Amino acid sequence: GMAEEEPTPELLDPGIDSGHRSHLSAHKHLATFQCRPPKEYLELDNRWIERLRGAGLLTFCRLVEGRLVGRHDRARPRMMIDNSLITVLVDRWRPETHMFHLPCGVMAPTLQDVVYLLGLPIAGDAIGPRVVPASWRNHIYFVEIIIFTLLHAINLHRDTDDDSVRRSLEAYLLWLFGFIMFKNGTNNSVDKVLIPYAQEIADAPEDAVPLWSWGSAVPAATYRGLCDACIKDESNARFQGCALLLQLWSYERLATEPTRHSTTVSMTTMGRLWRTWENEQARCTYPNFVVELDRLVAQDVIWEPYSAEFVASRASYGLSSWCTSNEALWYTTASLVYDIYIEAHSTDRVMRQFGYAQNFPVPCVIDRISQQDHRLSRLGQPCSATWVHKVQPYVDAWADAHEHVVHPVGPHTEEWYQAFLMWYRPHTHCHVTYADTEPVTHEASSTDAYARHRDEALAGAVS
């Protein structure tokens, strides 16, 4: 799987590669990431519905709504996150391209995947940084226990006053933002920059709720989480971003995942189709997933899962209008923004996901976003208006995202695809498998982590 020729910066930067998990795995055993779910999943109160609909969040809220399992039990999640699956995707992510590098080419979740799987709006203002009171603790924090205490303290009876309904909605939104959409590395708190967004939605009149581009912010946060995670080797590392997006994306597009089903139930998004079949989700170990992706060929990929014919065959009652609105934005190469995170949306690298020929070579990500801007971080930085000024040009540019779209060079053809692979494969890492030339026999013990026996298992897979 190692590059056979000199790497090209369009695909592989030696400076990044030396600390990348796919490189480190040849010399040490790496642990899986932790994508811990919220302590409790929430059901929607009917009095929140109109504001959630106005904010473009209702479809997504229905996707992640908790399922009550008993009169006195907590609501359970509709779908658990598979840590091994998320980790094997992290190992394939390249910050140079903002893509997963696979044997069959490059792939990534795009805005098209976001709208079809999550039903989030991509039109609207970008979710840029906000100036928050300096009295709030730096970097985060609206702690999970406070959110649940507030929600349970406000017992929403039929005659509950309007202000209590608004405050309970604000607490719910902080839970939704902090523990599902934009999860940070602390596992029990919410980034404080999200508080103004939750407040403004909760306090808006039902017929004048602000509409932001949540559908572009979620992949921005997730791309940043992938860029950070792919160079981490700590045993207790936690994935930041929206793991749900990555999991549903892999289910939808990669044949290593559960068998696809059709349904006669109204689904609203393709993501809900997978939630319906939660009990049939396969659970593989990390080494199994590594082998599956190392063996991945083009025939294993569902390149166009959202074609009219494919959708009709699986969701005959149709989908939410969010899934097909603002189609022009699917092809934008405008930078995605979440808070101070500025991330490239490189649709020009994944044109086969739209049914078109993949042009190559493609400009490097750093040609669009400077490394300095891409690495902006709040860690150790004071809370000030400085961030707003730094990021504002990207926030403003999102308003014109529809003007910066990819123009296809033509329909996908096998000849063009093979030419792309001949350019792509020698210049990057297509595989993660590490096979020791002199494997040492190891007798498993009860204290072994999964990675202890990884070399044997994977060496056998490629022998």
UniProtKB/TrEMBL annotation:
> What is the protein's given name?
Aminotransferase-like plant mobile domain-containing protein
Out of the domains of life, which is the source? Eukaryota
Question: Pfam family example for this protein?
Answer: PMD
- Per its UniProt record, what InterPro entries does this chain match? AminoTfrase-like_pln_mobile, MAIN-like
In the record, biological process GO terms are: meristem maintenance
Where the record annotates domain Aminotransferase-like plant mobile, the positions are: 79-425
